[in-house]
Amino acid sequence: MRRIILDVDTGIDDALAILYALRRPGISLEAVTTTYGNIDIAQATRNSLQILEAAGRTDIPVARGAARALVRPYTKKGSVIHGANGFGGIKLPEQKAEPVARFAPDFIIDLVRAHPGEITLVPVGPLTNIALALMRAPDLAEKLAGIVFMGGTIHHPGTPSMPSPMAEVNIFNDPEAARTVIASGALLTMIGLDVTMTTKLTEEMIARMAKRADAANDLAGRVTMEAARAYLNAYQRQYPGITYCALHDPLAVAVAEDPSLVTLQPMKLDVECVGEITRGQIIPDLRKVAGVVPNTSVAMLVDAPTFEARFEAALGG
Ligand code: BDR
Ligand code: CA
């Protein structure tokens, strides 16, 4: 059983990742921690609580985290991919539950210290909460089972809306945090665009899952599939000719449970924090010289058909 804390900027694929984590028997979702990114922190927290409410899992604690990056302000209003409410404009049922009364980085520290060697962090938004936790608790890196983060890219072009052509948005939103996490000494796995952009959520898959959610009276499945339709439409506007949307965040959860889904390459990574046209770019040092010691296992290939089938089975009810 893989015990995970999912750190989310919910977000449509973040919501899909939450449901995937809830519905895989090999995963125990210990907590959801929230961050800004796709949407501001208040809305990301609300969306996370509402997904859990719709799934009937208000027993999962939600801790609200950082409202902005370590260094730069957060000024974004809405998202071209995730819409003005971060959920494709789809209304989620109101939640009754509240976030726990603890700042997400502190909540992460508490949980990891309570279960040393047991918890894997799965951040799928900017890495601010994780960097803050690692800075506050120098013992955290060695007490974690690992960190599997969705973000960055090695060869695939970056997120289209980014000013840096090779920057992926989660890293671009807080490069200083990403750099802190990468230098932390924790066991790191990077799930970047090189692999996530080859995982496909198609119209046919959405239709099949929506049908099963309807038949099973599965509210969480139904609303996320409605949002998935909006996500697919947004993808088709952003990437002309594309016939699918990518399962970025669910893939990170899936790899935390089963690393055999990807081919990992050890690399020494760093993050460009000041570059005029490269801010937010992950820089791998692939030179074979003394001092270049890998700090991250980077996913370079994914068994997309196996993962997509697992995703559909998990969410399809
Ligand atoms: C990442 O950016 C966000 O829009 C998604 O939720 C995902 O975490 C993909 O680049
Ligand atoms: Ca995300």
From TrEMBL:
It comes from the Bacteria. GO terms for biological process: purine nucleoside catabolic process. GO terms for cellular component: cytosol. The keyword Transferase does not apply. It is an enzyme of class 3 (hydrolase). Pfam families: IU_nuc_hydro. Its EC number is 3.2.2.1. Residues 4-308 form the Inosine/uridine-preferring nucleoside hydrolase domain. Keywords: Glycosidase, Hydrolase. InterPro entries: Inosine/uridine_hydrolase_dom, IUNH, Ribo_hydro-like. One of its GO terms (molecular function) is purine nucleosidase activity. This is Inosine/uridine-preferring nucleoside hydrolase.
